[in-house]
Design a protein that fits this description.
Number of helices: 9
Distance between the termini: 83 Å
Strand content: 15-25%
Radius of gyration: 30 Å
Length: 361
């Protein structure tokens, strides 16, 4: 049998060397942030950990110290078998944790509001708006103000707020750039928001942080923080691409369920309102509930399955084209009582006014 003490002396240097080798490769993105949100979250994480260690470390130390002092072989230790209560100990044991919990509660309350993903960042620079759509298994990014789109890559100027609008054309997913800050979900028929900023230039990995299917492990992208001049050069490069992203191209991209990493793809032009169309097409008969509409901006394009521009109407009848819609609106604008008498509920159903019959509308 190998003696334990010589074996321990032999293994200790090897274990220390292996541990040091492993630690040299550690570069946690969360503990090495490159943006203001990431820095604030790192500070919050460290502060909360230190506050909790104020309880954990003394307890561990006292446990080891008491076990050693009151061991069976120590005949000099005090032996009080009838001891049962100490007011001083009770005060210390309860007051310190209560104060720590109180401090953590205040800290959590303030940071929850300060680091709200929906809260816009204050900056002198105009934010860059990016619409992110999770697909199987890739990320599509639309720059609505620049009228371009990319797959599995985003580029943005340093020290400029990023306003992300996020949704999904498939299952629920999670959008996360660890170096920059918060993670937030992408869900079908819903829009979530995220505000980030990069304080340094560089390339930061982005990912889907939750499992979403067979190609999940390849669902990652690159986020490039560049100077203003480099950003403008990148925009010019993307606009020069001949690819155009419209509804047909989007459906083709979504149908391509890649199991390997999808290569970076650029679209020089993008159909207006595509992001809103992706949200609306998953809403079905309940598409008007909970959505804000600008009725003045709505247009009837006469396409089958659509009522308002950018909002799909799956129950729309084939005969309800742009001319029929215009006639219907003209009839309602006249406001004549005879028109209301003639248009019965059955005729409205036949005309395909799907989604307008819900209660409370």
């Amino acid at each position: 049998m190998i003696p334990l003490k010589p074996l321990g002396r032999f293994l200790r240097p090897g274990l220390l060397f292996a541990l040091s080798v492993f630690l040299t490769g550690c570069n946690s993105a969360i503990l090495n942030p490159k943006g203001q949100i990431g820095h604030d979250e790192k500070t919050l994480l460290i502060t909360a950990t230190v506050l909790m260690l104020l309880v954990v470390v003394p307890v561990i130390v006292m446990t080891l110290a008491f076990a050693w002092k009151y061991r069976a072989s120590n005949t000099k230790a005090r032996y009080e078998p009838k001891w049962s209560h100490s007011t001083a100990i009770e005060v210390v044991v309860w007051s310190i944790p209560c104060m720590i919990v109180l401090v953590l509660a205040v800290l959590t309350w303030r940071s929850s509001h300060a680091l709200d993903p929906y809260r816009p960042l204050v900056s002198d620079k105009k934010p860059v708006v990016i619409e992110a759509i999770s697909l199987d298994w890739k990320w599509l990014f639309i720059y609505p103000e620049e009228k371009i789109a990319t797959v599995n890559e985003i580029t943005f100027p340093v020290d400029t707020p990023l306003n992300f609008k996020i949704t999904s054309d498939s299952v629920m997913n999670a959008f996360f750039i660890p170096h920059l800050g918060s993670m937030i979900y992408s869900m079908t028929a819903m829009e979530t928001k995220l505000h980030l900023i990069a304080n340094e230039t560089g390339e930061f990995p982005g990912m889907s942080s939750h499992y979403s299917g067979a190609g999940f492990s390849k669902m990652h992208f690159s986020a490039h923080s560049v100077t203003d001049a480099q950003y403008q050069a990148w925009l010019t490069k993307v606009r020069a691409e001949s690819g155009s992203l419209d509804k047909a191209a989007f459906n083709a991209l979504g149908a391509e369920k890649n199991h390997d990493w999808h290569p970076v793809t650029y679209y020089g032009t993008v159909e207006a309102g595509l992001f809103d169309w992706v949200i609306a097409k998953h809403m079905g008969d309940n598409q008007h509930y909970g959505m804000k509409h600008d009725h003045k901006a709505m247009k009837h394009d006469g396409a089958e399955g659509e009522s308002h521009e950018g909002h799909a109407m799956p129950g729309m009848a084939d005969g309800h084209d742009a001319a029929g819609a215009a006639d219907a609106h003209a009839g309602h604008a006249a406001g004549a009582a005879d028109a209301h008498a003639e248009h019965t509920a059955d005729e409205h159903a036949a005309a395909g006014h799907t989604g307008h019959g819900g209660s409370g509308e």
